[in-house]
Amino acid sequence: MSDLILEPTAAALWQRLIREGASDAGQPLDDELEAYLMMLLQRFHRRPELARTIMALEYLKAQTGNGGIRAGQLRDVGDQCLLFAGLFPGIARRRRVGIDYFVDLGRTAYLDLAGALSQGAGQLFHALAAGFVTLMDTLSAMRARPAFEALGALDQFELWSRTGSRGAREALARHTRAIPVAPPHTDTRH
């Protein structure tokens, strides 16, 4: 039987879940990233149509936009890629792409947005791009069963070696009872 979680508001519940997820992932978030992730979860928690979105097309559509519309579209692409990578990795498998596809596309959208915004707002989106894998690991840890446990050993290794995901590396170590070592050419971002 699971524990009943009682919080006075939805925001307080999201904050608690995020903090527990970050702690379980072994990667505490700074206040800015925690607040953004809380806002993101509140904004998207009742949008089942999200699963039907084709992210590459949304990204291309954002590239043809301008001003505030473009900024909103880039933010949505980054946010949705983060949700797919952290909470719904099965979508990647069904679409026959790796989770790193969502990581790369989401980071790129956030970086494009950072470059298009003023210094202050741009810094937030630069931080989101830099912390994308940490945020993904936090979201995964928030699930009852971390998303990386559902992946096979080869998928866990591929995700870790391509993105530096600590959660995927730890799942791989549990799965194989071995300590994975990245090939010399691999970019393992931490």
UniProtKB/TrEMBL annotation:
- Source organism, top-level taxon: Bacteria
Name-wise, this protein is: Uncharacterized protein
What's the source species for this entry? Acidihalobacter prosperus
